[in-house]
Design goal:
The protein is an alpha/beta fold. Helix content is about 40%, strand content about 15%.
């Protein structure tokens, strides 16, 4: 069986994205609240990511909050023609990340979208993702707002985050869903059905927390395989995702130049069918 991997994915039929992207959550302060102690380091990481071939940067208005978007613009604006910025709206926080609430009302989404456009110095956001479906707001109201914003030219493509297959199908009645961000990794595969549905629909699947938490016995087995391949456990987990499905886009986040380069190098790892079989059955054997 051919275990080679595609290096790019065509998002929304018109944006060619290198499958190794960069998640910009961790370029903020360590607790994700406020500016980092050394903003220049975050700027250096973003610029180096693009130098290394990354052309998809994922962020959200609540990373910081607002700080991640501001640093992205400072580091990369004016953007290279092929650099795609994806951001998200639909959450509100006033303190640590745990102190966060849903708000996908049209009023909030309007403010969030306009704020992201302003901070990112963009007239249109290439990928705008609903951070969460708000249980207090009928989903169709949020979806109608996003569809209208797209028609107004403020959004090029629309994605979703932390959704089920039924929720994706519901959203597809209002707009073309081009991406889904759910928590998924070699150690946490509860969204397997969503990944498979996205694959069947040509939707990008963007796993967050791609190394996963998982259980200690599974991590030990992963470490054994990583040692055998001569790579880190983190690189192995990223490589598995690249091999798992061609519609997976990776957004590992880091504020370290060294870790950034390690993430990029994980694209060079080749897993044969025996490696994949062993990794695919890990969760079943713990």
């Amino acid at each position: 069986m051919d275990t080679s991997i595609q290096s790019t994915f065509l998002l929304g039929d018109d944006l060619e994205i290198n499958r190794m992207g960069h998640g910009a959550m961790r370029i903020t302060a360590p607790d994700l609240f406020g500016m980092p102690e050394n903003p220049q380091n975050s700027i250096d990481v973003l610029q180096r990511a693009v130098e290394l071939g990354v052309n998809f940067i994922d962020t959200a208005d609540q990373y910081g909050p607002f700080v991640s978007e501001q640093l992205i613009a400072e580091a990369l604006h004016p953007y290279q023609d092929n650099v795609i910025i994806g951001t998200k709206g639909g959450l509100v926080r006033f303190g640590p990340w745990a102190d966060i609430n849903n708000d996908a009302s049209p009023q909030h989404l309007q403010d969030a979208l306009d704020g992201s456009l302003r901070r990112l110095k963009l007239e249109r956001i290439d990928l705008y993702q609903l951070h969460r479906i708000d249980p207090k707001v009928p989903a169709e109201i949020s979806f109608e707002f996003l569809a209208k914003a797209q028609q107004q030219g403020k959004i090029r493509h629309i994605g979703l985050s932390e959704v089920s297959v039924d929720e994706i199908k519901h959203a597809q009645q209002y707009f073309n869903v081009v991406s889904v961000q759910n928590r998924y990794s070699v150690m946490e595969r509860q969204w397997e059905s969503v990944l498979e549905y996205c694959q069947s629909q040509g939707i990008a699947f963007i796993p967050w927390f791609p190394i996963g938490g998982g259980m200690t016995p599974m991590k030990e087995k992963l470490q054994n395989i990583a040692d055998r391949k001569g790579v880190s456990i983190h690189q192995l987990a990223l490589s598995w995702l690249l091999h798992r499905a061609d519609n997976i886009l990776l957004i590992p986040g880091t504020s370290s130049l060294q870790h950034l380069e390690e993430n990029i190098d994980s694209q060079k790892i080749r897993l044969d069918q025996d490696d994949l079989n062993e990794l695919n059955t890990l969760a079943d054997n713990v």
